[in-house]
Specification:
- By secondary structure, this protein is mostly helical.
- The chain has a single domain, classed as Orthogonal Bundle (Farnesyl Diphosphate Synthase).
- Helices cover 69% and strands 1% of the residues.
- The protein is built from 13 helices and two strands, in the order ααααββααααααααα.
- Strands 1-2 form a two-stranded antiparallel sheet.
- Helix 7 packs antiparallel against helix 9, helix 10 runs antiparallel to helix 12 and helix 12 packs antiparallel against helix 13.
- The longest helix has 26 residues.
- It starts with a helix and ends with a helix.
Length: 280
């Protein structure tokens, strides 16, 4: 499979869906809508939306039917980045080679833009009811809400902010990664499969696959940024070589979980390998 061609084609679908969902920059209140669009376009690699669609295809569904979930996870991911960059959080002035949202639009508008992006994510996912059964959509909405709430993504950010640099407890560090990073990756994969009509057993296994890939993905990011002062990092706590080995073992374990899905899961496997191994 040509992974780059797959990513380009499916990424264009996601961009078109996001363009359809987001208000034009000139629509009142213009500052808010401009701030909402600032980090969405141009976006990153759309990794999480691609996982959504690949998971739908892996269980025999259509990527198009999972587009609402793909858009939703990208909007949630973008909102989390907008808030992460704020002066009260990581205080970053640049993201993806551009000034961060609060630098351009001010801190208050950046907070509100993040809030609005999160609301739009659930609006996007609710729109899947026109493509798949209302029951599947309702379950996917519940899954996404849990993954991005106080027990997962937001709670992981709180734990990261409070992390003690002297703490070398590997389980505690991995717990932060599991919530802050892996939870959204896992719900992307499980959600795409759910909208495609996967069985409960398949969804449960794909959720575990996503958790393992998500932690490996974060370790790979930490390895890439090993020269930066990241306090909560398995690369720092374990050392670079041991962290690489940990990421590789997680990836191998995850791959075994989807062996029975056959050739139709190859895009999902390739995306997982790409996300982890290209940075190791």
């Amino acid at each position: 499979m040509d992974l780059q061609a797959y990513m380009a084609e499916r990424g264009a679908w996601v961009d078109a869906e996001l363009e359809r969902l987001l208000p034009p920059a000139g629509e009142a209140p213009a500052a808010l809508h401009g701030a909402m669009r600032h980090l969405v376009f141009p976006g990153g690699k759309r990794f999480r939306p691609l996982l959504v669609m690949a998971a739908a295809e892996a269980v025999g569904g259509r990527a198009e039917d999972a587009l609402p979930m793909a858009a939703a996870v990208e909007l949630v991911h973008t909102y989390s980045l907008v808030h992460d960059d704020l002066p009260c959080m990581d205080d970053d002035s640049e993201r993806r080679g551009r000034p961060t949202v609060h630098v351009v639009y001010g801190e208050a508008v950046a907070v509100l833009a993040g809030d609005a992006l999160q609301c739009l994510a659930f609006e996007a996912l609710a729109g899947a009811a026109g493509r798949v059964s209302a029951e599947r959509v309702a379950l996917a909405v519940g899954d996404l809400a849990l993954a991005v709430g106080s027990r997962q993504l937001v709670g992981g950010q709180v734990a990261d902010l409070a992390f003690d640099p002297a703490d070398t407890d590997l389980a505690r560090i991995e717990s932060v990664h599991a919530r802050k990073t892996a939870a959204l990756i896992a719900v992307s994969i499980a959600g795409g499969a759910r909208l495609a009509g996967a069985s409960a057993a398949q969804i449960a296994e794909l959720d575990l696959f996503g958790q393992e890939v998500g932690i490996a993905f974060q370790i790979a990011d930490d390895l890439l940024d090993a020269d930066e002062e990241d306090l909560c990092s398995l690369a720092n706590a374990l050392g670079l070589d041991a962290a690489r080995e940990r990421a590789q073992r997680l990836l191998e374990t995850a791959m075994k979980r989807i062996e029975n899905l056959g050739e139709r899961a190859e895009p999902l496997r390739d995306l997982a390998r790409y996300a982890v191994q290209r940075k190791l």
